[in-house]
């Protein structure tokens, strides 16, 4: 059995731990051989393949990024794209199956390859945003929250020193999990998420309430947040390879609006890709390793079109269609818990 592994989409702490877990499990338990596709789906389309023997994955769990590199290539586009071309490439290289490690875009493409071309693919959910349905948590999320929380802690000290309002923007695309968790952990005075549009007047009410208590306001906002009078999320960076808007910059809009309405000097900080970088947390290393091991078992069982997932503390399998059909959004009950702490 020869298995190809790819990492696609945005990089994420824990990717290397998945690769290591998959290779070790496959070599030790199933006598499998592994290769890696470089640069995500681009490597599949272009046949850019490297061997992945056991010695290549030693010590990978603690290493950030991905040794296979990544891209946002659409496998249905380009000269070598589409199910027929991809199957031909797999046959020519003796590759029996693909383990696709990625988020919504990557797994949606994987599902199409299974459904439309019968390609043997198993998915592993990867996203710092925690926005994939059918898994309780995805690896990378815990690390991103830790990074964002540390940033909030640091910004709070400079906010207190100057009596400023700090607006901290975190990632998350169309869901607010990173903002919710880091905001609660960092003691934010308001948390703004895509699932809960809010007017600028409501935001300023929280800011003024904090000021009136003699504190410096700290607002955490998810990149996909919308004010109630906005028709769409703020995006000025164009589209990605899957025609999705690249979000970011909402904090840069909110800070001057808050200052103009409240008279409180306000500053914005966009954390951006720093949330993706560095070594993964211990939790993410363990979860990623378990998912990698389970993915190889799924290949052995020929569970094509399925994705390994976390349910409670157990690793299970679900169809990729179930995982990509809906977003894992923040439920009202979780936001109501946090809202009690606002202002």
From TrEMBL:
Reactions the enzyme catalyzes: beta-D-fructose 6-phosphate + ATP = beta-D-fructose 1,6-bisphosphate + ADP + H(+)
Cofactor(s) annotated in UniProt: Mg(2+)
Species assigned in the record: Orlajensenia flava
Keywords for the protein's UniProt record, in alphabetical order: ATP-binding, Cytoplasm, Glycolysis, Kinase, Magnesium, Metal-binding, Nucleotide-binding, Transferase
SUPFAM superfamilies: Phosphofructokinase (SSF53784)
Domain of life: Bacteria
InterPro entries: ATP_PFK, ATP_PFK_prok-type, Phosphofructokinase_CS, Phosphofructokinase_dom, Phosphofructokinase_III, PKF_sf
Residues of the active site: 129
Protein name: ATP-dependent 6-phosphofructokinase
